[in-house]
Amino acid sequence: MTVPEHAPILTIEGLDVTFRRSTVKAVDGFNLTLGRERFGIVGESGSGKSTAGRAIMRLLPKSARIEAKEMRFGGRSLPECSEKEMRSLRGREIALIMQDPRYSLNPVLTVGNQVAEAALLHLGLKGKAGRDKAREMLSHVRIRDVDRVMDLYPHQISGGMGQRVMIAMMLLAKPRLVIADEPTSALDVSVRHEVLKLLDELVRENNSGLILISHDIRMVAAFCERIAVMYKGRIVEMLTSLSDARHPYTKGLIAAMPDPRHPVRRLSTLDRSVLEALS
Amino acid sequence: MTEMPVETVRAPRSAAAFRAIGTLFRIGREMTREPLGFAGCIVLAIIIIVAALASVIAPYPPNVQSLGEVLQPPSWAHWAGTDEFGRDILSRLMFGAQITIRTVFSVCIIIGPIGLAIGVIAGFFGGRIDAVLMRATDIVLSFPALVLALGFAAAMGAGLNTAVIAISLTSWPPIARLARAEALVVRRTDYVAAARLYGASRMRLLFLYIAPMCIPSVIVRLTLNMATITLTAASLGFLGLGAQPPAPEWGAMIASGRKFMLDYWWVAVMPGIAILLTSLAFNIIGDAMRDILDPRYDRS
Amino acid sequence: MSETMIEVRDLDVVFDRGSPQENHVVRSVSFQAAKGETLGIVGESGCGKSTVLRCIAGLESHWSGEIHLAGRLVGKERSRDELKSAQMVFQDPYGSLHPRHRIGMALAEPHRAMGIGEGWNAVAGALTQVGLPADFANRFPHELSGGQRQRVAIARALMLSPPILLLDEPTSALDVSVQAEVLNLMCDLRDERTLTLLLVSHDLAVIGHMCDRVLVMKEGVFVDELTKDDIRFGRTHHEYSATLFEASLLGDDAPDAMARGAEAGFGS
């Protein structure tokens, strides 16, 4: 286990995101101080969890208005960075791993060339050096038979392997912060765990921070030291353990998950009127 | 099977009409957010209004010759000048708009349903029906449209109706192809699978499930095609195979103005501008319609 | 056991037979389900579980073997009467309703297509039965949330009162809290109408919650059969089921980083 450093990697205070035609804030007063830790953001669709992640990367469409009292990554203030500075940050210092590798890998490049391209872009490794680095990274994400896989195109590999290739590409430059947005929900159940474990290991090895965004509160609880539960754009609760959950939304979310080890005839459901009254 | 009383609660018959009007309103509203498309709509609206009211607003009758005013340059009396018989070109253009608009819309009314039907049937049934229909489409598509239209018009005798039929003959294949592509996608959706499970007949699937999903892209394609149709119609007119003199067909007007082009430029240029404006308006509207009706071209 | 509602014998499915991409999806599987039983098939994408379901429903034509529904042998082309014995609910609530049909139309269509009346007067009842207000009949699918659409899809599947309901990942596109509501609804309807459910999912937790009996499918064959108690106590008879258990984080050795993190002094 790594020793936690106290200098935060990312500090966010009062992050608001509003989309143009809407009066409701998609993200409302988001605060976060992230060290070299694994931090989870949990919420249902529309809770603003992905929007928050993308706001950090400044990857939202132009119609989104981002406001924050403070948003610092390392020594830099993210809202003041130029688009050019952001481009050099993305991938090299902040990496984003998205849901479906089939859409985030380039379909006309072989896996090997794709990873080598990332090596060229972020590390300046040309030609053979780049390919060697790619080979090294791919075996690092535990792809067996690396030489064969390097010559395959994205559509020829499975989702789990695709996500590993994605992780290899993203972690090649040893970014200080990795944002994983539902990294496993497009994958088969049996490989999910493995992919997450791999991501977790690499992040620890690089001593980076990880923000894991997911709808699956159990999965996030298994991998993250802290969890923010989001509902309607706000963080309703910060947890270090699921058993500490106090907010009715979090409790409802946990209770709504079917658990065959404790069979019930009917699952308990969220009482949305109570939540409305609270917010 | 037991007879069920049919006269229970009936679906409101006018629902479809209401929906169609609703869709039109939506398109209209979205159009205003699209400055270029809106401009195109205004230009087209002006052309249509002028065509409809030509007999009221045209300053001169279109076919009355006035040999004292032959080949006058544009002036306050004749905004677009006069031609070799002293006829007011602006008035002739206004009446010519009637011919163009009528041609364009007749062609669309003919090829829209034909293309849609052929495409949807080919895409839905697949197999041999698809092969036969699509090969036929390919054959027509591989003909140069103007040449086929020319041959047809020559064989049938020149005239506006022949021109319409000739243009229709050559311009349905792109519509059919498009409709087929859409039908292939829709055929595989879950809602069609569900309909098959509750026993919907093939005709029901075709008319109630698949065709309605293909109509928006067919309409977009038709609007884009209107520009081409305008040009083809003018070309036929130019070659003397469209509406016959003295009808003020724009293409024919250019053809007769050609002889005086160097000394009296307005005779050929004025109808040219009319053709340009009309086809440009159709093109812009088509683009805007595609943005509105087809979510795949989403502008975010 | 009461009467058998679904019986499948030696079901074999091959796609693109004879071509280089020949794909043997389902390899001679047999199973049955009794009236009122909920049978689950769990497995990963591509294992053939959805194909089995589509064969039973009558949406596939490249199969061989025997399928009996409600005691009747059915073929590849189904008569309307045969179709009435099993209806299906699909995975994607956004793709299973026609975007241009109002909800009322979607619910009336099964009756109209079958030629048993106009179906309009059954719409309101069908909506209330799945917990939606009757005036939803005038809405279009895009005006509904995912969970509401899935309720409509269930109501539509029940319009013809089939004794068998085939469910293809009915909640995997839904949020957890909505999933709970939809699962509860299906339990209630099953008990009210003594429906036989065949539920296909990759989520062992959902399957375990809903089903009396679970078949574990891998590469076109069933490798394990689990009872409700097996799932409750984590008993498996095949290595692959054990992997699935572990992956679903139902195993007792599921890592709890939060516990570890708390020990190491993380957090607030």
TrEMBL record, chain A:
InterPro entries: AAA+_ATPase (IPR003593), ABC_Ni/Peptide_Import (IPR050388), ABC_transporter-like_ATP-bd (IPR003439), P-loop_NTPase (IPR027417)
Topology of this chain in the membrane: Peripheral membrane protein
Domain ABC transporter: 12-257
A Gene Ontology cellular-component term: plasma membrane
A GO molecular function held by the record: ATP hydrolysis activity
Pfam families: ABC_tran
Keywords, alphabetical: ATP-binding, Cell inner membrane, Cell membrane, Membrane, Nucleotide-binding, Translocase, Transport
Annotated compartments: Cell inner membrane
Family that this chain belongs to: Belongs to the ABC transporter superfamily.
Protein name: Peptide/nickel transport system ATP-binding protein
Organism: Consotaella salsifontis
From TrEMBL, chain B:
A Gene Ontology term for the protein's cellular component: plasma membrane
Membrane spanning stretches: 36-58, 104-127, 139-171, 222-244, 264-286
Membrane association type: Multi-pass membrane protein
Entry's Gene Ontology BP terms: protein transport
SUPFAM superfamilies attached to this UniProt entry: MetI-like
Keyword match Chloroplast: no
Leader peptide range in chain numbering: none
Residue intervals of the ABC transmembrane type-1 domain: 101-286
Keywords of this entry: Cell membrane, Membrane, Peptide transport, Protein transport, Transmembrane, Transmembrane helix, Transport
Gene Ontology terms for molecular function: dipeptide transmembrane transporter activity
Entry's localization field: Cell membrane
Keyword field contains Membrane: yes
Similarity section: Belongs to the binding-protein-dependent transport system permease family.
Family matches, as PANTHER family: D,D-DIPEPTIDE TRANSPORT SYSTEM PERMEASE PROTEIN DDPC-RELATED, OLIGOPEPTIDE TRANSPORT SYSTEM PERMEASE PROTEIN APPC
UniProt-recorded name of the protein: Peptide/nickel transport system permease protein
From TrEMBL, chain C:
Domain ABC transporter: 8-244
Major localisation: membrane
Catalyzed chemical reaction(s): glutathione(out) + ATP + H2O = glutathione(in) + ADP + phosphate + H(+)
A GO term from the CC aspect: plasma membrane
InterPro entries associated with the record: AAA+_ATPase (IPR003593), ABC_transp_ATP-bind (IPR050319), ABC_transporter-like_ATP-bd (IPR003439), ABC_transporter-like_CS (IPR017871), P-loop_NTPase (IPR027417)
Keywords: ATP-binding, Cell inner membrane, Cell membrane, Membrane, Nucleotide-binding, Translocase, Transport
SUPFAM superfamilies, per the entry: P-loop containing nucleoside triphosphate hydrolases (SSF52540)
Entry's Gene Ontology BP terms: transmembrane transport
Function: Part of the ABC transporter complex GsiABCD involved in glutathione import. Responsible for energy coupling to the transport system.
Subunit structure, as described in the record: The complex is composed of two ATP-binding proteins (GsiA), two transmembrane proteins (GsiC and GsiD) and a solute-binding protein (GsiB).
Name recorded for this polypeptide: Glutathione import ATP-binding protein GsiA
Biological source species: Consotaella salsifontis
